[in-house]
Amino acid sequence: MLGMTFLLALMMMLGLFLLLWAGVGFIQNKKFFSSCPREVYDRIQAKEKRFNGQYVFGWGLAIFALLLMGAALLIGVENGIQSGFSFGQFFIRFLSMLLLLKVFDILFFDWFLLSKRGLGFFEKYYPEVAELLSSSLFGYNKREHLIQTITIVLASLLAAWICTLF
Q: Which contiguous run of DSSP H or E holds residue 42?
């Protein structure tokens, strides 16, 4: 159970990264940056298209990312049903997958990419924000992470209950 759950969480992490990359690198619509720190959001400027098909590629990548994340959830459900999971086992699977995804979001996106400027990710696409990215940004969205974590627990309970109906 744990090995499969961890593999499914990795699929979701990959999907979340691809979704971020699609939005930041290719779609480049400022609406996708609404969760970033206000000072960074205010500094972001509209970008010219870098290559033909950029937006189509970005939207295709975003759709693929969402499908990958959805597939991880569906595989988790199907595997759990085939394995005869109880409510508790489904709950632990969903809770583990989603909390691991949240930890990935906090550590990789917020801490590494944003606060530590890892891989030069944001600066590559938005050089105008480079001077704003620093360790002081880490934790700027604690309240949202707390709300999302509570939502994860509730959604995991609901999903586990629904899965036990099958």
A: helix 38-43
